[in-house]
Write a structure and sequence with these properties.
alpha/beta; Quinone Oxidoreductase, Chain A, domain 1; Rossmann fold; 2 domains; 7-stranded mixed sheet; 6-stranded parallel sheet
């Protein structure tokens, strides 16, 4: 099969399109014929091996998983002996291992039937970003009707889902994004939109019940100025400080230490991946309440270009690779 392969950590240029063996599904796994795969910052970290803390899980000297990619949407090609929920020919979506390839293996517990009203490309935009946003808004943020919610990075993959989910829960949503994404964020349901290049989140003196920060480049002190006294700050990833060892993830560690001593909740998010979360998203998608904001797509051979695109913060919603 054709696959994007990396032999070592490095920039997107280190990725190569090659012929490799088709993986085999284990007892509780599913082999998926991939039709589309998502592109997100998590793949960037696993490709570059940065921050260095990533290598503790992914491989110290080189990535154990040579084919990158997490999100996928496609058709079941084969199932392991213990899998009963899926059969060859089923259209599925979810998270797997090495989805930047013609075939990928995924745990059955991390797959769900593809939403009927989505294309494969649209479906591939959902799993990682959608589940992260669902956890941030519904489970950690505990957003309720009438609350004021601030979504930083509202024009990106996670942010675009967070705006829609908070809106459907009855919150008044303010989205923070760059000037090229203002119209997109308004179309997703944000009542107010802030251009971060010209306005600071603290300028208006507003305090928010829940802040979902997917940008990662603001200090905890700065974010707390915009947080209501008993509010919740949800930290999704981090890109700014901490050097090559931790980058923005040092902010999440500091949030854990600080949270018990301040009025609000400061919560670093560890997003779950499960069929139950995918099913919850499917219900919202098929009802028309949530729609993936699809930026653009690239063919498999241009995966390095797609990775550079999202790393530069250019994505309007979620970028995908079609296969």
């Amino acid at each position: 099969m054709k696959a994007i392969v990396q032999d070592g950590y490095g920039p997107p240029e280190a990725l190569e399109l090659r012929d490799v063996d088709v993986p085999a599904a284990g007892p509780d796994e599913v082999l998926v014929r991939v039709r589309a795969a998502g592109v997100d910052p998590g793949v960037w970290h696993l490709t570059t091996g940065l921050p260095y803390a990533v290598r503790l899980a992914a491989g110290l000297r080189r990535p154990r998983q040579r084919v990158p990619g997490l999100d996928l949407a496609g058709v079941v090609a084969a199932v392991g002996r213990d899998v009963t929920r899926f059969a060859p020919g089923d259209e599925v979506y979810g998270t797997g291992m090495g989805s930047w390839a013609e075939y990928a293996v995924a745990p059955a517990r991390k797959l769900a039937p593809k939403p009927r009203n989505l294309s494969f490309a649209q479906a591939a935009a959902v799993p990682v970003s959608g589940q992260t946003a669902l956890a941030a808004v519904r489970e950690v943020g505990r957003v309720r009707p009438g609350q004021d919610v601030l979504v930083i990075g509202a024009g990106g993959g996670v942010g675009s889902f967070a705006v829609q989910l908070a809106t459907c829960l009855g919150a008044r949503v303010t989205g923070v994004c760059g000037p090229t994404k203002l119209d997109l964020v308004r179309s997703l349901g944000a009542q107010d939109v802030v251009d971060h290049t010209s306005t600071d989140i603290t300028d208006a003196g507003r305090r928010y019940d829940v802040i979902v920060d997917t940008g990662g480049n603001r200090s905890l002190t700065h974010l707390r100025r915009a947080l209501a006294p008993k509010g919740t700050l949800v930290l999704v990833g981090g890109e700014a400080s901490g050097g090559r060892w931790l980058q923005g993830f040092d902010r999440q560690l500091r949030a854990l230490l600080l949270s018990p001593f301040v009025g609000g909740r400061l919560v670093p998010l560890v997003a779950p991946e499960s069929a139950a979360h995918l099913t919850a998203l499917t219900e919202l998608i098929e009802a028309g309440t949530v729609t993936p904001a699809l930026d653009r797509s690239w063919p498999l051979a241009e995966a390095p270009t797609a990775l550079r695109h999202i790393a530069g913060g250019h994505s309007r919603g979620k970028a995908v690779i079609t296969i």
